[in-house]
């Protein structure tokens, strides 16, 4: 997979000093039986992110996925690119959801390779150059590992780890939970909502 990203208070932003630990549950917070989605909880148990308009069973009929904060405020909208060989998805700030211009994208994410069945992603971030020319997408992050097995890491362009996904354990015996519940650790200085958007796209692609 490959991601192209353009730069864009509470736990959804990047203003924190210590790594944040989240529990991601692949189920809508609406709680209806059989509903798909995501519910993301902080380390004190509060709902931080949610995705409700989501269906894994009707994957190719999805036109848009909205990432919201815990109160239901829309943060980002994710859209698949039609007829993309690499399963490309584009992300937009909510105010730019109706904008079709290429520069309105927050990031673009796609499968890195059609020949390998594992998650390896590159994030390209939009940068404005010194000569005031049009912004160009530049490599900023990469995601390595296997999302399907809940074992992958996100690195920045300098090779520093900024986030990690792993299996969730519970109890003193460290019992592994199912793949529908997993842990997400985000290092200081990185926008949490972008990491969650990457996870949603990885879930769609894998």
What do you see in this structure?
This protein has 206 residues and is mainly β. The protein has one helix spanning 192-205; strands spanning 2-6, 20-25, 38-41, 47-51, 65-69, 74-80, 89-93, 107-110, 119-127, 136-146, 151-156, 161-167, 169-170, 175-176, 181-186. The strands form two sheets. A 13-stranded mixed β-barrel has the order 1-8-7-6-5-4-3-2-15-12-11-10-9. The chain has a two-stranded antiparallel sheet with strand order 13-14. The protein is globular and about 55 Å long. The relative contact order is 0.23.
In short:
This protein has 206 residues and is mainly β. It has one helix at 192-205, and strands at residues 2-6, 20-25, 38-41, 47-51, 65-69, 74-80, 89-93, 107-110, 119-127, 136-146, 151-156, 161-167, 169-170, 175-176, 181-186.
């Amino acid at each position: 997979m490959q991601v192209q990203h353009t730069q864009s208070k509470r736990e959804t932003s990047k203003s924190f000093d210590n790594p944040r630990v989240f529990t991601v549950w692949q189920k809508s917070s609406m709680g209806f039986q059989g509903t798909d989605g995501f519910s993301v909880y902080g380390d004190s148990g509060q709902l931080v992110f949610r995705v409700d308009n989501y269906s894994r069973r009707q994957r190719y009929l999805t036109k848009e996925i909205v990432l919201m904060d815990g109160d239901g405020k829309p943060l980002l909208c994710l859209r698949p690119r039609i007829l993309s060989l690499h399963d490309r998805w584009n992300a937009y700030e909510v105010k730019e959801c109706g904008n079709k211009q290429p520069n309105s994208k927050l990031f673009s994410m796609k499968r890195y390779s059609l020949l390998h069945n594992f998650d390896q992603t590159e994030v390209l971030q939009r940068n404005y150059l010194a000569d005031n020319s049009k912004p160009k997408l530049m490599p900023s992050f990469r995601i390595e590992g296997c999302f399907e097995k809940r074992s992958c890491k996100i690195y920045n362009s300098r090779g520093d780890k900024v986030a990690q996904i792993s299996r969730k354990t519970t109890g003193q015996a460290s019992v592994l939970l199912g793949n529908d519940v997993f842990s997400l650790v985000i290092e200081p200085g990185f926008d949490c909502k972008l990491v969650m958007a990457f996870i949603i796209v990885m879930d769609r692609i894998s």
